[in-house]
Amino acid sequence: MSPNALIPSHRKPRRPSASSRALRAGVTGGFLTLAVTGATVPANAAEKPVSETQEMPTITTALATSAARSADTAEQVAFNYERQALQDSAFSHAAKAAEKHKAEAVKKAKAEAKKKAEEARKAKEAAEARASRSSERSALSAPASTSTSTSTGTGSTATLVSFLKAQLGKAYVLGSSGPSSYDCSGLTQAAFSQIGIDLPRVSQDQSTQGTQVGLDNLQVGDILYWGSAGSAYHVGVYIGDGKFIGAQNSSTGIVERPLDYDMPTGAVRVL
CA-CA distance, 171 to 71, in Å (whole number)? Predict the structure, then answer.
């Protein structure tokens, strides 16, 4: 053993280098800091990376959170715009549909009103016609049979009535003027031609021939008409005893009927 082994050394202990201190500080703080070999780093330089290293995660998280919030906001705004656009489109379609339904309802109401007005007009005309016929029937019930007490006559009226009775039972054919079938005005024209009187072909014109006479003053051979003078739709010939002969319709053909079977509107005298 050396005689100096137990003698404390007077050499100064070696101070750790700055890099060693930085290394220990880094390890102690939870971070490992590598120093360049042979470089001398001041003591305060070792602390700066620690601070920067600690702050970076915080900055990165904040940026990510902000970006996520911005994305959410943008998505919400886009969703709101899309929802508003859909609502606007739905409202527009609903408004157009409502307008269409309204127009259809108005059109239907007008058509119904027009139909009812037409029905009311026809009902009024029919009621007036029935009332007129009823009053005329009452007035004619006695005088019509006494004005001409017989269906036979002399001269032209007898020939006229004889021809008309010979046509009873024949068919009614619209536009026909004999000899096997007739319509109403065709029959009267053919009958009066037997006694040398030329009548127009249609009922409207026949109702304005000769002289207008009252239904309470009828004579054999008077032409009866239904409708109004100048626009009559049917004619027949009065044969006396409150009766007439006419080509009524396709179901009955040429028949003899009492006046109250279908009271005429007026009469004209051409004899």
Answer: 96
